[in-house]
What does this fold into?
Amino acid sequence: MRDEMDSEDAHRYPGLSAAGEHLLRYLREHPHAPIYRNASGHRLLPDELPALLAFADQVRDASIDPRAQPLAPWLRSFIAHTMAQTPHYRAYGSPPEQLQDLPSITRGDLARDVAAFVPDDLPIDRLINFRTTGLTGQPLLIASHPTVAARYLAFHQRALRRFGVELRSSAGDVGVLLVGWQQRCFTYVSVTPQLGECGLAKINLHEADWRDPSDRGQYIDDLRPEVITGDPLSLAALLAISFAHQPRAILSTPMTLLAGLRTQLELRFACPVLDVYSLNEAGPIAVYDPALDAHVLLQQHMIIEILDEQGQPLAPGQRGEITLTGGFNHCFPLLRYRTGDHAALELRAGEWVLAGLAGRAPVRFRSASGAAINNIDVTHALKPFALPQYALLQRADGSFSLAIHGIQNADLRAVESALRALLGEVQLKVSAHRQLCDKLVQYRSELGE
Amino acid sequence: MNLEGPPLEQLLRRLTETPNAFLAEPRMGPHGSVSVPALVADVLAAFGLRADSAALARFQGTDRAKQRNPRMLTQILCWLLMDPSLRGKIPAPELLRLLFDEANSLAEKIPAKEFVDNDERREELSRLALRSAGLRPAGESKNVAEDRWLNVSSGERVRLAAASRAAEERARLIREALERKAAEESADKYSRE
It folds into this structure.
């Protein structure tokens, strides 16, 4: 069988066992398998595994304090090393006494020259990249490494443990099914060495990727993935497919998962549905906990500042731009990276959380009475509905346009009523589109306020 | 260089003892605490000189990413130049050139605090200040002073030029490596952003 495998597979799955080979073949050649259009693998070397398992232990047991002050010893040394080794940060000069003395960076800085953010003391032969077009459409290539990609699992395990789920998958099982629902989607199969080479399949639920659309449910039932991950749009598409399998958990990234859709997923699959705040630039940052009504932080070596528009740090409880320092991607160290996302950092029930997380810059709308309406209010108003994706625009003349994408079964009149209850008797046009947008700007106003 | 100035050790010691106030963050917008234009004006006044507001305004940084380091070096230079042995010995245009252009040039590749913490960088800055005042260290002949200056300044500049070329080459290799990987594939993550 090894002869039949792509010669590149040796690089994709170093140290692959016979059982792992068998599983990959099963995933690819299953009679109901989709058309796998790409190839990818973990690329982990066997001698990298012990450190990864130790890392997972540290993540599991870590207590998390994201505050920049006082400068923790690890943070002081991270800042000094990053400023000494990374071309962009080197230009800042000498390490500061406090983090806030350093300038912040934005996605635009990263997009201008990614090489300037890769430390000099890093071998480049095993660099990989994560590519994203971003919600603002600004393309970005993030330097990374196979061990960085593999560390994601440790944070997901921490998040899952919070909801009582310990991963049990091992050799022969399918650990995770990553679902997409796009016209074009990168699809492949792989194994996860940290979990005994259990299987990983990234599939596209779009009908065009299947010989017969009815294969989708059959394939999922036969694979019996322990966890299913996807964005809200793909998870909404999953709801429309008939199959019996119940995963032990569902992870939603990276867009806001509205409560209505989460409830539908919970009802259908009878398992925890986790809304994970995750960025290509920084990995999984926080998971939403309904009991706290906030996103609980996941990374012990990630400092989070909340900045105002002038870049000044705000006190806990005050809402501003989420700004990151640290992280687990040693190929792409972050020093005060302004994410463009907004929330308040708070201590709730003894844990640091991001409250009121909105993955976009706040947008202020104007109601019929002239009152200012925060986009968070719109999110709240639309919460009861299972909207996979939507965009609200207020034009310069004050009229509104709500475009709903990937719609399955929402009651448009009820959606309109909910918005009118918030905005008053404004001119409002609601349109529904079957097609999803890969990335869209959720809230926009042309009023210039 | 024709006149003998203070012993080099005097300036080296002064740099070692740079007060924290001169190593604090230069003020830019709402950030930082040190007003560099005011500091420069103080130095000029101590030399019995004045500068027009436009000349001083150049020291008011706006972009912390680019100007934090050179302005911090301006602050360190201000402290050094206030040494009694140098006061009144540097004309205004040269003083401003030293505090602005030389600081910009030196800070391009070297963290400002290195000029306090590192033996060679302290010597470079001390000799630079003496040269600007037309002085050489006490006890050194003109030739020896010139030779030592070339040693500490040129040696470092050659090293930095080589480092700069290496950095450009590395950036090119990184960009190529990432683009190549982008054309192929990435590695597994348990979820996708």
In short: The first strand of chain B starts at residue 3 and ends at 4. The mean pLDDT of chain B is 91. Chain B has two domains: 3-152, 164-193.
